Amino acid sequence: EVVLTQSPATLSLSPGERASLTCRASQSVSTYLVWHQQKPGQAPRLLIYDSSKRATGIPARFSGSGSGTEFTLTISSLEPEDFAVYYCQRRNNWPYSFGPGTKLEIK
Amino acid sequence: QVQLVESGGGVVQPGGSLRLTCAASGLSFNMYGMHWVRQAPGKGLEWVAFIRYDGDNQNYADFVRGRFTISRDNSKSTVYLQLNSLRADDTAVYYCVKGGYYDVWSHNDYWGQGTLVTVSS
Question: Burial level of B13, CB count in 10 A (0-12/13-18/19+)?
């Protein structure tokens, strides 16, 4: 089974700074990798699909890149509402596992 | 717009059973695959199960196979998750997630608000 790891576990930054979050897969998932954002008490929200495509309504400050086993989610300039937990998920075949998450917190 | 409303959660003893229900509206339900995803308190997300748009194919995470069963009733726009032989580590919020149009996944997810299952004696 493909295992996803995310780094760092916690990222402390200030509004206006650039955030880079990494997701690594134990085997290639091609570009079948998505990113979700989850805020406390809310269901996750899809940000990025197919590694680099923004979902409907997602601001342009969010971007994704990568293929194979290494992926990056970049937030170009953090807004206060971006502080949340971010999960990657593989969608190439089942089981459609998630990474353990990166908590993006205000410094 | 698309709405997914889960129900059926509650407190159950170890070894017990529950049936979760997800009622969908705002979409042609019989054209979409559906998933269940869970989240233990304070923990990450776990994909649980998938059912194809017509109900003819189901996939499960290894940790639930044989204990949980996903099914659907397209006439009622509803997907179910039958939970049997429940264990303490099945305690979680269970989310219903809309899948793809005649496909497994969508490029535009919709999630329900979740229903909490607590397994405790």
Answer: exposed
> Does A43 contact B114 at a Cβ distance shorter than 8 Å?
yes
Point out the residue among B44, B50, B112 whose CB comes nearest to the CB of A94: B50
Rounded to whole angstroms, the Cα distance separating B29 from B40 reads 28
CA-based nearest distance B25→chain A, Å = 18
Sign of CA dihedral A87, A80, B1, A63: negative
Tens of pLDDT, residues B4-59? 999 999 999 999 999 999 999 999 999 999 999 999 999 999 999 999 999 999 99
Length, in residues, of chain B = 121
- How far apart (Å, rounded) are the C-alpha atoms in residues B48 and A95? 8
Facing residue for B44 by CB, picked from A1, A46, A101 = A101
Residue B108 and residue A91: Cβ atoms within 8 Å?
A: no
